[in-house]
Amino acid sequence: MHRVQSKSWVFASCVLIATTSAALSQTVGARRQASKPATVSTDGVWRTSGGKVTLLFDRDRLLDFGVEMQTLVKTAVSDELPRADATFAASGGSESGILFASRNGRFSALAGGSLPTDGEMLLVRSDDETFTLGDFDVHVTIDANGGGNGTITDRRGTNREAFRFTSGMIQFDAAAGRFEWGGAELSLDANWAHEVGIPQAGGVVIGTILIEAPAVAAPNASPAPQGPPLGEGDPGNYGLAGPDVIVGDLQNVQRYGTVGGITAFSVGTTSCNIGTFWLNWMSNTNQHPVIGQNMYRLKNGRFEQIGMSWLKHGFFALSENLCFADCQSTNGSHLGVHCSDPYESSLNGDQSNLGPRYQVNAATGGYPYPPANPATPATIGRRLQVHNTDLDPGQNAGALYFVEGQYVTPDDAAANNKNNNASYRRITVSGVAGSGNYNINLAATTQRQKPGIQAWKDNDNAVTLVNVDIPNDGRMTVGYRVVDNGNGTWTYEYAIYNMNSDRAAQSFSVPVGAGINITNIGFHDVDHHSGDGIGNVNYDGTDWTASVANGAITWSTQTEAQNANGNALRWGTLYNFRYDADSAPQTGAATLTLFKAGSPGQMQFDVATTGGVPAPRVQVTLSMSSPANVRRGDHVLITATLHNNTTGVESADFWLDGFRPNNTQVGPHPLRGVFGETLSPGQTLVVPFDLVVPNGAPVPSGPWTIKGRVGAAYPGVDAESSVQFSFIP
Asked: What Å distances lie between residue 366 and 143, 308, 414, 589, CA to CA?
């Protein structure tokens, strides 16, 4: 686990080093400082102002494609012969320039920005067809890993993106106010290469770009940085709100037909960028949103997912004003700040532009491009598929229906804005009962930034929703509802929605009190289809098996090691779990075991159950990165991870206890701590320890145990975790 924080330019981690005394001797120890050191005056946000941009071309590579880049260099004596390289004057101004962060007087990280230039050049094909280029706008973007990329838009001729550049080295001297970005690889934009008749050159590196510019401090730059978050004694931890895409509207629907008792639909979506920076929307790359659609039904108190689609790949962003009146328009390769972009249902249902979900990591927004493209089943393939029995009015009297749209994209995820990318809208179903010919119709209004599971709560006050944020991954939302059946039994209903967790879920368990009878155990999932699974084979649809044992009821499917295509609860899906019990509800700790390997392996949270104890409000997990067998003088490297499971601020005491092989406790008591911690909602705190085995004192051989413990006040233990290592004489 790691500390959950917003997108940052500079990351720093807390280093807490401690060792045992008596059997384990202390070496070095330092906890984070309560106060922060003074910020260096050159730290903060800077902006380039003027300067020059030089495009350096590989002439031989250009000739391979049958083109030349030409420019005239005028001197006082004559005009020189055409040459491939071109230098352009960069314009200054308070609203232009490349934004970046500085720390200790040196470059720290890019934050975006735009640099306009003046000048022109020619692209000349071998057939003498000539295209004028110039007055470029150099746009800087940040990829999912924080690296710098850019596009170069031609204002003189085609008014389209002409080039792209990536990587390179950035240097900054704050004392001299000088910024330089050199060595970035320059390539022709694929769309523009096609327009000028050399599609084979699209995306191929044909040179480099050099940006040289003076820079000035820009503390009030737009997008403006937030104040530095409280880091681990690090004053240089700046952040931006960044791009933030939501579904502003679900605006129309389309029906395609029925095959084998399944009908296919599509839903139109309009996106809005509510963030402070534009959103990448670059066609033919992996830097654009993918758009998913789901359908849900609320029937007799049960909220179930009944349909899902493949993913629409975005290709061009309009600059409209659905959500705001101050759209900062772009040329279509980005969704501007406060701009909206509509994709009609016909586009979201276009089979040729739909890619599988299995290739997308919704936690990071990353995916390969182009997507896998297996054969498409006719009529219903890849589209939003729903079984007719789930729509038939004769079988679903009184049911409510909802559609959901969700956008996933790398730069939104990198800015930690991925948890508001889904919206839902109520629909109605029309058609004659039993006919198999049903349509869906929009009703009510779009509920922005609310995933489909929120419709359960919005239409049933007895429902409770709990967000489960998995460290370094994504979010799942757990809903539950308990109904008194009036005959001495209660029905327990759970729905788990995986919004964007790549690690997915493999089992779900809730405690059952002693002597309680469990009946009517149930499970419901949704069908993957059209080859949406690893190897273009559908994920296994086998229902999760249920068992009642060891004081719990547990539903589970195969592990990833057993079957990578197992029926895990993957992102963009909702699974249901239910049972009846002859016991009234109380609060207990449910456990969700994750499908993909990683730390933590499980998440705990409170739900209504028939027994058990509440989940700890602050959870602790210990892990060890050093060998499990140690000798005198060896270091035992342990990491303690604290996580606030609640939606409120939690204060807790944290400490370490040590135990010898005979289970006697190592003094002092506690071994390390007590450390008072305050964690914000959902926050994760990582604290490493370095324990050293002493050289001198006798140390019993065998398994030693270190326990990490948390509680509201020492010595009361609410939660603990342990690791073991063996001493070898």
From this structure: 10, 20, 10, 33
pLDDT score of 93: 60
Q: Which residue from 328, 300, 651 is spatially nearest to 485, judged by alpha carbons?
A: 300
Residue 200, classed as helix, strand or coil, is helix
Q: How far apart are CA 676 and CA 674, in angstroms?
A: 7
Asked if residue 505 lies in contact with residue 605, where contact means CB atoms within 8 angstroms, the answer is no
Decide: 165 and 184 in contact? Cβ < 8 Å.
yes
Q: pTM for the whole thing?
A: 0.63
**Average pLDDT, whole number, for the chain?**
84
* Residue 153 structure tokens: 């838009």
Share of the chain above pLDDT 70, in %: 87
Structural domains of the chain in order of their starting residue, each with its CATH number: 44-217 (no CATH), 240-461 (no CATH), 471-615 (2.60.40.1170), 618-727 (2.60.40.3880)
Cα–Cα distance between 186 and 210 in angstroms, integer? 10
136, 259, 424, 584, 702 from 309: Cα distances, Å: 40, 15, 15, 39, 55
Query: Which of 634-646 are b and which e, b meaning 16 or more Cβ less than 10 Å from the residue's Cβ?
Result: bebebbbbbbbbb
Element (H, E) at 720: strand 719-727
- Amino acid (1-letter code) at residue 503: R
Residue 448 pLDDT grade (very low, low, confident, very high; cuts 50, 70, 90)? very high
User: CA distances (Å), 207 to each of 168, 212, 296, 537, in order?
Assistant: 12, 17, 51, 41
Distance CA(572)–CA(139), nearest Å, equals 33
Q: State both tokens at 612.
A: 């058990």
Contacts of 712-717 with CB under 8 Å at 24 or more apart are 712/617, 712/651, 712/652, 712/653, 713/653, 714/653, 714/655, 714/670, 714/673, 714/674, 715/670
CA-wise closest residue to 407 among 342, 465, 473: 342
| First-residue to last-residue Cα distance in the chain | 33
- Could you please report the per-residue DSSP string of 459-483? T-TT-EEEEEEPTTS-EEEEEEEEE
73-106: pLDDT as tens digits: 544 444 454 555 777 777 766 567 888 877 777 7
Cα dist from 667 to 81, 173, 208, 257, 670, whole Å: 83, 52, 63, 73, 7
Determine contact, residues 200/210, Cβ cutoff 8 Å: no
